[in-house]
Amino acid sequence: MAASTAPSSVKVGDHIKFSIADDSVNVYTGTVVGVASFQVAKSMGTDLAARHEQVRAALTAQDKSDISSVVDQQFLIVDIGDIRPLVIAFEWITGGAVEVIELGATYTIKLVNTSKEKAQEALNILRANGISCKLNVLY
Fold this sequence. Notes:
Elements: E1 3-5, E2 15-20, E3 23-37, H1 38-41, H2 48-61, E4 74-79, E5 86-89, E6 98-100, H3 116-128
């Protein structure tokens, strides 16, 4: 089983799993590539102030609005396989903890002669059960 830990305890190279307070749908997994202050993190091309307000609004709706100013935050920089890494404030992480995970093997599952919608439904079922997966379409 994966160990939960505070975001401030993770190290560069750790593989982590987490969700963000304003996004109850997605669970992110990736590799920590850095930890940064606001001054460094804002140079990574993400509008951190706007995202901070989204998270603050979500937390306010949950009666948990006591988060620090965006300029006082520390940020994890996580490679999630996108073009740019995900820049995420410690306090934006749901429950204030990430799971440090062991990387397992990669498996390929082929869904043949099915629609993209059915393939997406299969991925949603896997994700709902804590499995990180993506859809590659081959014709």
